[in-house]
Amino acid sequence: MNVTRQEDGKFELRMEEEEWRSLCHLLSQYPLTSADHHSLNSKKNPDPGLKESDQWLRDSVSKHQTDREVQIKQWIQSIEPVDNDEGHLYPVLFDAERADWLIEILNDLRVGSWMSLNCPAPETLSDKSPDSEEWPRIWIMEVSGMYQSILLQALS
Amino acid sequence: MRFNAEPTVMPTVDPTTDQKTQEDVDPGYLVICWDDPVNLMDYVTHVFQKVFGWERSKADKHMLEVHESGKSMLVRESMEMAEHYVHQLHRYNLHATMERSE
After folding, report:
1. Binning pLDDT at 50, 70 and 90, where does residue B1 land?
2. Do the chains contact at B99 and A47, CB–CB below 8 Å?
3. Do B37 and A33 touch (CB under 8 A)?
4. Exposed, middle or buried, B26 (CB in 10 Å: 0-12/13-18/19+)?
5. A69 CB contacts (<8 Å, ≥6 apart)?
6. Structure pTM?
């Protein structure tokens, strides 16, 4: 997998079939964070006047996630493979706006999987002996972070 | 059959419905971003640039403050705008809150 910048300013992420399938599998897990944990109120000094705003925020995040789910399905269907000597390649073209969209979705997956692991310090993950339930969550967290880094690096 | 050019019932404007309260416009709310161990540092910088339209250097400065001090006060705004910014930050899954400034 490599990212190249094109003359029109867009980026191309060229993926092997297995890489593309793995990205699709990852994105199909969205969303992993729950809208219920969002709060704009400070835990230490809660402002009673913001209670209604909290519910508004949760509704807004929930609606945003529903919209994103639809967009993800449409985006995956829009990517057409091209053939080369070694098989199918998936050239994923994106501009800065699309990259931002993907980075935000990947972050939901990273944060959501981290929360489902009870919010461990990332440096302690390597000391862990994960069980069969934890392995897929750690995979999602790490692979989402890897894709985020690739996209953020391309943007900068 | 009557043909009226003007409607028989005219809409009335309630002068109280479209007025913002003093609280809505006072820049008396702070937007604060809190540290967490999972969001990538480059990601936090990226989000600050997107949400506030900041230059990379300013976004980096606030990201480092979050990382090193546990939180950063990002902007002081009206209640309406502070809510708007907190909503944006939450959509990106950053832990942001708003509180009345002293």
Report:
1. very low
2. yes
3. no
4. middle
5. A30, A31
6. 0.85
Complex-level ipTM: 0.89
Exposure of A69 in the CB half-sphere (CA atoms within 13 A): 11
**Cα separations in angstroms, B15 against A13, A132, B12, B20, B79:** 55, 62, 9, 11, 21
Q: List alpha helices for chain B, DSSP H.
A: 22-25, 41-52, 56-69, 79-91
Strand stretches in A63-132, DSSP E: 82-84, 87-94
CB–CB contact B98 A104 (8 Å)? no
A30 Cβ partners below 8 Å, 6+ apart? A65, A68, A69, A72, A105, A108, A109
For residue A102, give the nearest of B7, B38, B77, B92 by alpha carbon. B92
Indicate the pLDDT class of residue A125, thresholds 50, 70 and 90: confident
Q: Determine how β-strand B29-34 pairs with β-strand A82-84.
A: unpaired
The Cα–Cα gap between A83 and A90 comes to 9
A82-84 and A87-94 strand pairing? antiparallel
User: pLDDT-based confidence at B32, cuts 50/70/90?
Assistant: very high
CA–CA separation, A44 and B24 (whole Å): 23
Distance from CA of A80 to the nearest CA of B (A): 28
Contacting residues for A89 by C-beta, under 8 A, at least 6 apart: A14, A15, A16, A17, A81, A82, A83
